[in-house]
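USER: Study each token:
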Amino acid sequence: MIITAEKYMQLVFRVNPPLFLPFYNEWGKNAYHTMKPFSYNPFTINASSTSGSPVIITENKFFGFLNDNGGEFKFNGSNTLEVSLYKGQKLYYNENCNPYEEWRKYTDIVSDDNEYKKESFWSNIEYCTWVEQAKLAAYTGCTNQEVLNEDFVYCFMKKIKELGLPKGKLTIDDGWAEDITPDGKYSIGNWKINREKFPNFEKLVADIKKEGFIPGLWLAPFTLTPDADFAKAHPELLGAAHSEDKEWYYMHYDEAVVRRYYREIFTFYAGMGFMKFKLDISYGPKDEMIKLLKVMYEEIKAINPKIEVETHMPDIFASRYADTVRINDVAFDSDGAWRYVTAGHYVVCRNSSPNRILNLDHVGTNNPLMRGNNFLEHFEMLKEYSKESGGYVTVSYLPDMFSKEIQKKFVDGIYELYDENGCRRTK
């Protein structure tokens, strides 16, 4: 059933907990299910972690907002769900259904699938420097950002070749840009190349392509620190603090100003040869994060529609402005909760954005110190998700420190999914 709000209205439903809230999570956790009272606006809630669509599932019931006009979900902790609809909002609901089937029907209504034109390489295997950076940082006492430089990237490519892995996309992660303030704090927002660590960045990108990889670049253009040139020029665009100790601030939305800012950034790096942009740290109020993502997507596609744009907001209203959706961070833990987190993130992403390619993220999680058996078990999980969804895995931790047996099992498993060029195998 669909209800349209001609004016602000409230609806009350009887439900039995736990309630599944794909739009609510906490970073690195699976906190989507709750039995506690809450009151959330899924359109303005911070998009922490893997933040899915504005829907609620419980038992045999489904509730979902059909547009972004706004609304709220309120649960009393017992058996009452109150749904507030702002004027113009539509609520899709069914109180006697298979909620996951209903979720697919809901997504079909909201989806813009006819406007989505896939490029074949978007499904290719991806290599990302991030967890390898973390591995080296863990052994040297440096930060992940400090260890990244030109030699690191060349060594990364060499190790991929030595392991016998296929080609694919190769994303340079955090640490390539100027990121330290004069007083030693981590800085974010200028997106200027750190020429001390990358004196020949243009040649590096050309060499990545020459080696048969497709160059990708990590950015966090939703976030600023006050020292950034853009923040100094537009202090009114500094939102709430995301991290007090790092002085990270969400960026407010001003279309004309941010459009010029993004156009300059992406024109420069697309011109250098990057064919993928990994857009990270969009953890602010979701309505503003989506507006910023939309502008970035439009500016990138105006430069080159074939460039892959990646987000970690699987929300159906956000992923229409992305080509791939990344399942966000998981880390191994001694209690084994990582299995639950991995599965939870996948369920949210698969059902929130079934019409987008999923980046299943780092094989071996985001943990730089791990056991080989856990590495392989996590890979088996992602391999099954890949077969089911068509999504791709990201090789960010190279298993060269494990036994030859583990290396072989991993490489053989990769070739089950991809050919020597890193392209997805067809059945």
Notes: The longest helix spans residues 255-272.
